[in-house]
Every structure is written in structure tokens, then in C-alpha cells.
């Protein structure tokens, strides 16, 4: 058995923080300090296989705490975003942030010296000393971190993880933020949207409506075979997919703002090699205006990783949606796309770090995440440090709230997603949205879909159950932030904060290069999900920032103080849903067309209601939103 204690390791090494010390025989060593967020919650219900071998390999990141501590940084981030505060909108440059909150060289030296004294190899620190990477044996890691590393069966994999919280010497308590990687369970995220097509080509079938309600679903595509009514009503065919002019008219009205002078960041995994060309083709085809020289830029790594696990081409539809939706809502804004090296947390964290270090963008749309249960607490701590830095620099982070409602059907547990539940980001939920022929919004309700299939004899609609809907609910990780008090009830963080169109049946038409049986070329299809809502809201936020002439940092304190700038999305509507036509082979009518009814406002256990609700937050933005940050 290999169970060296931290205190014993410290004394045996003869050094503390790299400085030689003399320890009197009668002196008791200081009690080791537990590092928060380092004991995986899942070990309590996983199958334990026993101690990991002494010689097994370990690789981990030791994240270093900001100068002054995380609590002080959290308070500062809220203050700089809260009207009436003496520091309101007094944002820092990256250099000023590092001077005020950055990790010092002395801290790096102290932590590094201690880790090496325990027998671990320590790499050169990451940019701005955010973390050091350590590697070595299980025996050395146990000695350094004062824990036992065990083997478990978790999510069908044999992994190793600490059996209890990591500890460090008391003298390092303020220096070490968290330790990530001792738990070897793969930690990756997925696009929020479940509606992106596979890498093979995909097309939406006809009939469909150019605007909501245009084509009544009385007959099938042959216009001879009748379709039954649904609950006594003749529904309309789903829209073919809204375009930029329709979405701008519905949400922005006649506003002359277009986002000029603002740069919107988008972060996904990987990068489509044809994105710039595809986005320009889409924009010019649908009236969003061609991209000016330099209006679209990309920052991508030299090498991509974990491609077999993450399916890079599966992210291309997500990227196209994000880019084209932002440009649709803010055709004058610049777009800076950041492609992470993979869908793993470590790579996404590296890209977020680059975003806040570049400080080139004012708002960032993120359409990805994981259920809270699947996100390790150490990664949460690492993500939040970057969100806090962004807030201090005037950068606003938006995250899709998810597409699985309360997540019960997909995970077996009612829960929210992360990072969307983090108190220092804005969570964007979803609506089902009708846009009329004149561009006005004919209705808006919560997005939540139950599916009904056409019976074999074509005479009735047969229920299939819940399909998907906007994510939301009560976070298990975070207490209620001060800005939600009096608006969203309960002692914990509530999700989402706002909402925009997300229903795939009332979604946006997008275009990108796809693979079809007859070749690879550009084509278009309708898509939805809160992966649509987030970039739509990012585009509207660009207009608000254009008007104010400044960044905003964390948006939530202003949003919750000005709920009257948002349309309260209510449950009651006379629209039950739509009929959707789909090609059986996803390409054309040669193998037939499948018909189904997709309902509105039936989102698992989540209910749309008056005021804040767990489907649409405080509601969808109106033109009054543009005036909030001046």
C-alpha cells in the first residue's frame, strides 16, 4: 500500500516552498489545506476497484489562484457590471487585469518548488501563469496532494481518481485554485443543439411556409391526400426557415443600429475550412449583406486533437449557425471565430483564455455544454476564473441553456447544464416564434416539443412523447446570485436568464458545404435549438453595445434590473404547433415523405409562466434592450 501523507512528504523533502528550513523535532507540522473542488462527486456511487498502482502515470493541471483571491474577484466583477457602483463600467485592459489580479512569479516559484520536491515533473507555466502542468507517478502525486488515488468503473470506463479532496501545505492555501486531471474520466462537451445534421447532406422537405402560417396543412405534398386535424384544428406547415431580414424585423423592428464598431466572439470546437465562403454565400443570398474585408476573422490552433471522440465535421453545422445568426442580427458587427483544438474541457479553456487575453471581442456566444453532473468541479473553478477575467475586461459571455429540457429523459436526473448555469455568464433559453408575412412577431411562447406521428392509415396523429425543449431549472452547483433576488425564486441559481427563437420548427435557415451522394457542395437547411437563441441574442447585444459605445461585462445585473425591456413570454397561445414534413432519406422525396405534428410549449417538467420562468427566463429582448448599457 502506498499512502504517504502530505505532512511527512513535506518534512522528508526538507524544504517548504523551495526554501531550506530547519524543523525542530518537537514542532508539529501545519495541517494541510484542502483544495476546494477536487474530490469528484461521482466516486460515491461508482464501483471501486482498489488502489491505483504506485507506478501508474498521472498528468494534471495545477491552477493558480488570482492575486487577492477568488472572492474578491467575484465581488469586483459584479461591481463593475452593476449600475450605481463606483466602479460601474470601469473595465480593465488585459495588462491592467494581470497587474491587479494576475498570478505572481513568486507564487509560481513556490508552487513549482513544492511540486518538484514531491517528485513530480513540472512544465513551463501556461500564459499569464494560469496553471502549471505536472506529470509523474501515482505515488508522487499522492505524496504531493495528500490524497489516495483509486481505480473505479465510471461511465463504463476504468479510470483513476482521488478518493478524497486534494490538500496542499497551509502556506500554499491562497496560491492553489484547483487541481484538474487526477480524475482521468474524459471531460468533453457537446454542441447544445441536437438538431444539427450528420456530416452527410441534409435537406428540409416541402411543403413548408415562407412565413409562419402561410401554408395550411390540409393535404400532403401531392395536394390530394388529406391530413387529419390536430385536436380539432388545421395546423400550418412549419416555416422553411427564417432568414436574417425576417428575424431582424421581428426582434429589432426599424432600428438603424447594425452592430458597427462591435466585435462578437464565437467559440466552438474545430473550424470548418469553408466557413468564410459559406457565410458570405448565405449572407449575399438572403439579404444580410456581404462581409467587408476583415469583418470575419478566425483564430484556430496549429493542430486539432481528439478528433475520433469529438467528430469535427459534426461541429461545422454548429459553427455555421452561430456565425450566420450573429451576422443576420448585426450585419455591421465584426465576427471573430475561435476554434478550440477539441471538444475537451482543457482545449476549450485554452481558447477562452486566449479570448480574454486578446480582448478583441465585447460579447462571446457559446453553443455547447454538459449536464452539471457530468462536469467536474475542478473544471468549473477553472472556467469561472476566465469568465471573471472577461467580466473585468468588459467581455460578456453567453451560453445556450441546452436542448433537453430538465435533462431527466437524457440523464435520469432533473438538472441544468454547465457552463450555462455559472452565475458569471448569461444563460439563453428558447422560444417558439411566429413571424408573419409583414415581419411582425405573430406569437411567441416557450419552446418545448411533443411529437405526434401520422397513423399508418393517415387518419389520425399518434403521440410519441416528449422530443426536446429549452434547458433550464435550478442549479445544483451555485447559490442564488444577488442579481436574481426578487425575480427568480429559490435559494439557488436559476436558468435561463433570457430567451430567443430556438424551436427547430420555427428555426433559421442556414447554409454550409455538405457531403451529398453526388458530391460536396453548399446547401441549406432549417435548424434550431438554444444554439440558435444564443447567437441571436449576441447579435442584439452587439446593437446595444454599439449604442452605448462600451462593453458591458456580465450582463445579468442590468438585465434583472430592467425586466421591462424584455417581452414576458407567456404560456397561453392559440397556436398548438405545426405539421412538419421530412424526407425519409433526408435528401429528397424518392423514398417518401414522413409527416408529424410538433407541438409548442410542452417542455418536459419546465413550465412557461408569467414573469421569470425556467424556459424563457425574464423573456425575449425588445428594442428597449438597446438602451440599457449607455
- CATH structural fold name of the largest domain: Rossmann fold
The level-1 CATH class of the largest domain = Alpha Beta
Tell me the distance between the termini.
Answer: 63 Å
What count of helical segments does DSSP give? 14
The geometry reads as globular
Brief description of this entry?
Helix content is 24%, strand content 27%. It has 630 residues and is of the alpha+beta class.
Q: Can you put this structure into words, describing what you see?
A:
The chain is of the alpha+beta class and 630 residues long. Helices cover 24% and strands 27% of the residues. Helix 1 (6-13) crosses helix 5 (138-145), helix 6 (244-252) packs across helix 9 and helix 10 (345-358) runs parallel beside helix 11 (377-392). The longest helix has 19 residues, at 530-548.
Lay out the secondary structure.
Blueprint (H helix, E strand, L loop, with lengths): L5 H8 L1 E2 L2 E2 L12 E2 L12 E5 L5 E8 L5 H12 L12 H8 L3 H13 L3 E2 L8 E7 H8 L3 E6 L2 E6 L4 E2 L7 E5 L9 E2 L44 E2 L6 H9 L10 E7 L5 H11 L10 E4 L7 H4 L1 H18 L4 E7 L4 H14 L4 E4 L1 E4 L5 H16 L3 E5 L7 H4 L5 E2 L7 E10 L5 E6 L1 E7 L6 E9 L3 E7 L12 E4 L2 E4 L6 E9 L2 E9 L2 H19 L7 H6 L4 E2 L9 E7 L9 E7 L20 E2 L9
Parallel strand pairs: 13-31, 14-16, 14-17, 15-16, 17-19, 19-21, 21-27
Antiparallel strand pairs: 1-2, 3-10, 4-8, 5-7, 5-11, 6-7, 8-9, 12-18, 18-20, 21-22, 23-24, 23-32, 25-26, 28-29, 30-33, 31-32
Helix pairs in contact: 1-5, 2-11, 6-9, 7-9, 9-13, 10-11
Amino acid at each position: 500500500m502506498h499512502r504517504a501523507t502530505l505532512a511527512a512528504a513535506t518534512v522528508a523533502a526538507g524544504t517548504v516552498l523551495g526554501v531550506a528550513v530547519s524543523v525542530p523535532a518537537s514542532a508539529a507540522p501545519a495541517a494541510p489545506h484542502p483544495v476546494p473542488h477536487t474530490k469528484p462527486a461521482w466516486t460515491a456511487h461508482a464501483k471501486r476497484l482498489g488502489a491505483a498502482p504506485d507506478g501508474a502515470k498521472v498528468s494534471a493541471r495545477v491552477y493558480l489562484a488570482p492575486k487577492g483571491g477568488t472572492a474578491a474577484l467575484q465581488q469586483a466583477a459584479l461591481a463593475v457590471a452593476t449600475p450605481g457602483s463606483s466602479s460601474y463600467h470601469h473595465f480593465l485592459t488585459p495588462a491592467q487585469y494581470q497587474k491587479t489580479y494576475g498570478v505572481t512569479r513568486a507564487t509560481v516559484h513556490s508552487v513549482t518548488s513544492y511540486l518538484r520536491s514531491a517528485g513530480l515533473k513540472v512544465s513551463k507555466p501556461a500564459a499569464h501563469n494560469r496553471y502549471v502542468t505536472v506529470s509523474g507517478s501515482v505515488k508522487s502525486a499522492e505524496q504531493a496532494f495528500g490524497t489516495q488515488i483509486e481505480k473505479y468503473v465510471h461511465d463504463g470506463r476504468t479510470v483513476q481518481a482521488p478518493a478524497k479532496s486534494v490538500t496542499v501545505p497551509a502556506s500554499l492555501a491562497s496560491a492553489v485554485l484547483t487541481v484538474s486531471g487526477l480524475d482521468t474520466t474524459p471531460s468533453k462537451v457537446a454542441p447544445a443543439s441536437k438538431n444539427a445534421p450528420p456530416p452527410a447532406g441534409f435537406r428540409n422537405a416541402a411543403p413548408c411556409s415562407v412565413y409562419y402560417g402561410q401554408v395550411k396543412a390540409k393535404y400532403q405534398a401531392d395536394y390530394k391526400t388529406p391530413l387529419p386535424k390536430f385536436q380539432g384544428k388545421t395546423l400550418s406547415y412549419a416555416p422553411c426557415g427564417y432568414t436574417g431580414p425576417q428575424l431582424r424585423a421581428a426582434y429589432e423592428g426599424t432600428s438603424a443600429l447594425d452592430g458597427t464598431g462591435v466585435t462578437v466572439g464565437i467559440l466552438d470546437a474545430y473550424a470548418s475550412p469553408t466557413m468564410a465562403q459559406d457565410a458570405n454565400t448565405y449572407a449575399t443570398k438572403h439579404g444580410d449583406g456581404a462581409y467587408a474585408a476583415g469583418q470575419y476573422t478566425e483564430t484556430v490552433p496549429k493542430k486539432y486533437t481528439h478528433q475520433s471522440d469529438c467528430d469535427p465535421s459534426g461541429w461545422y453545422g454548429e459553427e455555421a449557425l452561430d456565425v450566420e445568426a450573429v451576422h443576420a442580427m448585426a450585419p455591421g458587427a465584426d465576427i471573430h471565430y475561435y476554434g478550440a483544438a477539441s471538444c475537451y474541457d482543457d482545449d476549450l479553456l485554452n481558447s477562452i483564455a486566449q479570448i480574454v487575453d486578446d480582448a478583441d471581442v465585447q460579447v462571446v456566444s457559446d453553443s455547447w455544454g454538459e449536464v452539471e453532473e457530468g462536469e467536474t468541479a475542478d473544471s468549473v473553478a477553472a472556467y469561472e476564473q476566465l469568465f471573471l477575467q472577461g467580466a473585468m475586461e468588459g467581455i460578456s459571455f453567453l451560453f445556450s441553456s441546452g436542448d433537453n429540457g430538465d435533462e431527466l429523459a437524457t440523464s435520469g436526473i432533473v438538472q441544468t447544464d454547465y457552463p450555462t448555469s455559472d452565475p458569471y455568464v448569461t444563460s439563453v433559453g428558447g422560444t417558439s416564434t411566429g413571424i408573419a408575412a409583414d415581419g411582425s412577431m405573430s406569437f411567441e411562447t416557450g419552446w418545448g416539443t411533443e411529437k405526434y406521428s401520422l397513423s399508418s392509415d393517415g387518419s389520425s396523429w399518434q403521440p410519441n412523447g416528449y422530443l426536446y425543449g429549452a434547458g433550464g431549472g435550478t442549479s445544483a452547483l451555485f447559490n442564488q446570485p444577488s442579481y436574481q433576488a426578487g425575480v427568480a425564486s429559490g435559494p439557488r441559481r436559476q436558468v435561463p436568464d433570457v430567451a430567443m427563437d430556438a424551436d427547430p420548427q420555427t428555426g433559421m435557415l442556414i447554409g454550409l458545404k455538405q457531403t451529398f451522394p453526388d458530391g460536396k457542395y453548399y446547401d441549406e437547411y432549417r435548424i434550431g435549438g438554444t444554439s440558435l437563441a444564443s447567437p441571436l441574442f449576441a447579435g442584439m447585444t452587439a446593437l446595444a453595445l454599439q449604442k452605448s459605445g462600451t462593453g458591458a461585462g456580465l450582463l445579468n445585473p442590468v438585465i434583472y434590473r430592467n425586466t421591462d425591456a424584455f417581452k414576458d413570454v407567456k404560456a397561453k397561445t392559440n397556436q398548438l404547433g405545426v405539421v412538419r414534413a421530412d424526407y425519409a432519406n433526408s435528401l429528397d422525396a424518392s423514398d417518401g415523405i414522413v409527416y408529424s405534428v410538433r407541438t409548442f410549449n410542452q417542455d418536459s417538467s419546465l413550465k412557461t409562466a408569467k414573469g421569470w420562468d425556467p424556459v424563457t427566463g425574464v423573456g425575449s429582448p425588445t428594442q428597449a434592450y438597446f438602451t440599457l448599457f449607455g
